[in-house]
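Input.
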Amino acid sequence: MTPCWKRAFKQMAVAATLVALADFSVAQTLKIGWLSSLTGPLSVAAQSESIGVQMAVDEINNAGGVLGKKIELVTRDTAGDPTKAVNFAQQLALSDKVQAVIGPVNSGEALASTPILARAGVPNILIAVVDELTDPVKFPRAFRVVSTNQQWISTANDYALQTLKKKKIAVIADTTGFGTATAKAAIDMMSRSQVTPVYTVLLDPNKTDVAGEMSKAKEAGAEIVMAWTSSTGLLARLLNTRGEMGWNVPVIGHPSMTAPQVQKLLNKPENWENAFAPGYRNITYDASGKLPARTQALADKMRAKSGGSAIDVNLWWVAMGYDTVKVLEHAVKSAGSADPAAIQKALEGTQAFPGIFANYSWGPTQRNGFPDSDMVMNAANTFKDGSFKLAPY
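Output.
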């Protein structure tokens, strides 16, 4: 028997979807929910992604909208709290009657909210990386634009084991849903290469003193510290502690390690040296110091808006946020309406959609749009105008 509350929610969701479709036919706007952790310890990425989301909304609206309707962005700040993410997901689907939702922007929240949006039948453009979030059976209308957790982990592991040729690895992750899942996945992947971490620990992302954990990693003989957290504060504390210890061990981990917000929290500039993270070909300078044309165009738009000043945020976050809106524009135009089933079908038939962050492809059984071939490793201390150089190979 299906629990009463689930039957009731399903009935409400069906009713909300029908109302939303009827509303769209006469509505003046296309309503898109933006479910994002704009405040709290995990807010740095979300704030940058929000720049891209708003840029795309403004451009589309200035060009006349989607199927003649302006986009109305309905923003909800989860503050990194999964409970708030659930509540806001319900609100966006059932009360605000949005046609689609972008986000959440971290996996702990998405693990809680994605099932809510799936039951409501709302198309969901995912920015979270945990692999369980993309399931064409459980979550048929959830499509991912960001790289997957497996892509991050395999890129980092390959760099540690094959490029740097180190096998004594300490795994330090945070206690969020992302951190715990990623630590386990990273360790499982290492085991397939007959490598067992010499030290593992989970930390609260707000923990201020990490000297004990870093000392234990050093005492265990770690040749690499692998750090899986999106908290720029925690990453900076790990790098600062490494510097205070005089321990020049490579630190590899979450792409947030390359964020300029980490740089601003470092006690010494050199603490950013010998730090590497998975990155993206389209946000990486080539050998001649150039970016792909579409990426450069976005950077030029950002620079124009800021009066010509240098870009001081990670450009890949901005590009990904921008692409989420453009993907929805593409889906609604292809579908000819905001019908959720038609949007799903349009995205399932999308191949090599030309975004800035990547060229995305999905299918009837494929919900991960980011190609493996676009993953690279970046050196953190090469940040310039939002982009990076390749890590040494």
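The mean pLDDT is 93.
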